[in-house]
Write a structure and sequence with these properties.
It is built from 8 helices and 7 strands, in the order βαβαβαβαβαβαααβ. By secondary structure, the protein is an alpha/beta fold. 45% of the residues are buried.
Length: 255
């Protein structure tokens, strides 16, 4: 059965991996992303995917993007509130307030705007699956990364609350908590944390492995496998779950 799937921040990283996998199984996919160049590249690589530029923190842009999808499709079956940013690294007393706000804005406010739209349509339909990209940072304390950890803990609370609100209408809401995901984004995070903590990048990178039972990072396909399962009939009774895909993180130790 073909699903209608919307993915935020879908032109690169985890979002692009999700878009590729949903499209590969024959679903209708629409993505937005704030990176115009990445959106253009994706439109060329996946011409059947609706790809538009929109900033998840801008209500006007998101209303326009989501409104166009609603007009074309008439509804939506799966929404992946995937947009996120790592935010600044450092001791809380050294953090800039604007950088804190920007991190909370993308991770939490962007999910709010996306889920608010999805909830309205899915409640009316009496069905749907919302998948929020959280993080293992929403399961542990995360030294030197307080804005990011705070936003991800909030997303887990949002997931639980929306599952309760929307469950009676037949709508499921779950969160995926990735561990350290291979790719350019984590390379930047490692460099940022190394600079903030006065350590080498090799030391920081190693800490992400030693803190995981399976001694491994994860890749985008690991996360896409879980998202496709949560969106499928096989997960018809799975809701309100915060599911780590991380090789089992024991602790986030970065200082």
């Amino acid at each position: 059965m073909t699903s209608r799937v919307v993915i935020t921040a879908g032109a690169s990283g985890i979002g692009l991996g999700l878009a590729r996998r949903f499209a590969a199984q024959g679903d209708r996919v629409a993505i937005c992303d704030s990176d115009a160049a990445a959106v253009a590249d994706m439109a060329k690589a996946l011409p059947d995917v609706i790809a538009e530029v929109a900033d998840v923190t801008d209500e006007t842009q998101m209303t326009a993007f989501l409104g166009r999808i609603e007009a074309v499709w008439g509804g939506v079956d799966v929404v992946c509130a995937n947009a996120g940013t790592g935010g600044p690294a450092g001791r809380i007393e050294d953090l800039d307030y604007a950088a804190w706000q920007a991190c909370i804005g993308v991770n939490l406010h962007g999910a709010f705007l996306t889920c608010r739209w999805a909830a309205r349509l899915m409640r009316a339909q009496g069905a749907g699956s919302i998948i929020i990209t959280s993080s293992t940072a929403g399961l542990f304390g995360y030294p030197l990364r307080s804005p990011y950890a705070s936003a991800k803990w909030a997303l887990n609370g949002l997931t639980k609350t929306l599952a309760s609100e929307l469950g009676p209408a037949g709508v499921r809401v779950n969160a995926i908590c990735p561990g350290a995901v291979e790719g350019d984004r984590m390379d930047r995070v490692v460099a940022m944390e190394a600079a903030a903590g006065g350590r080498s990048e090799d030391t920081v990178r190693a800490s992400y492995v030693t803190g995981v039972s399976m001694r491994t990072w994860v890749n985008v396909d690991d996360l896409a496998d879980m998202a496709l399962f949560l969106a499928s009939p096989a997960a018809s009774k799975v809701s309100g779950q915060i599911i780590a895909v991380d090789g089992h993180t024991d602790a986030l130790v970065t200082s």
